[in-house]
Amino acid sequence: MQNRPEVCSTFYHFVATGVATLRIRNMIDTVTFDLWNTLIYNSPQDNLKYKNERIDGFHSVLKQTGRNVFREEIEKAYDKSFEIYKPIRDRNADISTREQVQIILECLGNPEFQDLAEDVLSELEKVLANTIFSELPSLVEGSEETLSYLDKKNYKMGLICNTGRTPGKVLREVLRRRNIIRFFRVLTFSDELKIRKPNPEIFLHTLKSLNTSPTTALHIGDELESDILGAKRCGMRAGWISPDRDKLQPDFILPDLVSLKNVLGREKSA
After folding, report:
1. Could you tell me the pTM of the whole model?
2. How far apart are CA 8 and CA 20, in angstroms?
3. Please, is 245 exposed, middle or buried when counting C-beta atoms within 10 Å of its C-beta (0-12, 13-18, 19+)?
4. Per-residue confidence (pLDDT) for residue 5, from 0 to 100
């Protein structure tokens, strides 16, 4: 699986210099991190691979029950389930892996799949949750080095993760196998708390568990809305991991659309 070496300089330089400066000036004692594409890497190709493995797994388990179902039907139900799941996520809420399994079964549109035995449901749940172990995600380059640096500097560290098909109980094992779980005092996963970033409550819950205040905490993540907006809403400082930022600089930033008239007016008169 591919690493993202270009993240390293952005990630480590910010933490090793920027966070230390913040600590001196503003008494930062806590750093929380996003997980996906901040500490561990996940590409569109990875997502497609996991999706196909999950669909194959569903197909195998359901065939063993003696019910007739085609792989194409399962793939359609899998994709359709996201449409049902999306409004829940848009409310910054979350559901369990079992609930995701039930939604996929409902999307098959066949009453035969509404009364499956508990052992079958458990197997389907394992298919969704454990597929990630077939090829463990790589650490973003610089992750372990940065976490070790902060640990030696006695920062309290927490993880705040929006989960997808892979639940928190499995991601804990991923972190253990990648040897970085040791750095975190608190691990917060949206499927367990039933709250997703950018809802400030998931940040505040983590900070309370860390026995710290938003005014002395910094959150690091790669998503402007879920990470940066969420952290700022609860009074934390926020650092954005954006390896492409230098490559994609806008010519100007508008506070609102009406401001375009002023920009174009200046251009015209120049």
Report:
1. 0.85
2. 17
3. exposed
4. 42
